[in-house]
Amino acid sequence: MTTGQELVAALQSIRSSAEQGFDVVDVPSAPGFKIGRDVDNAVVLLTPADTNPEPPTQLWRLSLDPSITLAVRFADGTVEQGSFGLMRLRLGEAEYLEPFLHVVANLVEVIGPDPAPGEVSIAMRRLVHLFDASPNPRGSVLGLWGELFVLCASRDLPATIDAWHASIDDAFDFAANGSRLEVKTTTKSERRHIFSLHQLLPVVGATVTIASIMTTETAAGTSVDDLIKRVKSLLAADPVRQMRVHEVVAETLGAEWARHVSHRFDEEQAAESLAFFSASDVPRVGEVPPQVTGVSFTADCSGVKVETSPHGLAALISSQDA
């Protein structure tokens, strides 16, 4: 299996010749793939060529071509010419390198050594979604950390990943047939969380549970990136779901997601404080006129009855496994 660490090491072994073209090395664990740099020091990944390619894509930081004929140069001076898929990242800042290579490692596994027609193009399109994400974050770093913490605590991670920001109901962090789970994380000293009214109203045919987490931002804590890597390690044989993790991170934090994954929070405090509540028990505002929408408010959950045997998705989560 190809890993981000392997690609980092391979890239560090390259000595650019400062000539036009691409200086590359083979990716040891992935026949048909090469990684390297071009004359402008941009990072490049070469994949098997797509036999049914989509048009090339050019973004500010990323350029992609599913099928292009070019020559590559190895450290011993030999040159190989052929057809490849080309991914090229102009970093600008070193902080993007490792996150990019972890994503690329997933793509290598998703594409595989013998991709069917169109598969390289599809994989490249997924990369576009990561590095051309919406500039407006959907959520916060703290909220994402709490969701990743819950994923790490799941006894059925594939099922929980599939429910994570699923299209079945985007009002909740996790949604599956018959179950909704909303994760609320706070760094305040009291168990107060911001809710939308919709999150606390009954959902026909489904249980709605709130997972409440209290933590503290600390340099000695567990980072967002640490949790991403842990979730991926638990999905080691499942590159498609690993890729889903990266996609949700980018959707949540926006186009500059790589800048924010170093934030750290106290994981031990989170595990000790994790509590589940039925949404129906959380204090909320009363009936509102139908002309009023988008109602949100802060609720003090410190006196809410804790569910000791939660149902649905919440039943998969245990603080003892976090």
TrEMBL record:
Domain of life where this protein originates: Bacteria
A Pfam cross-reference name: DUF4420
Entry protein name: PD-(D/E)XK motif protein
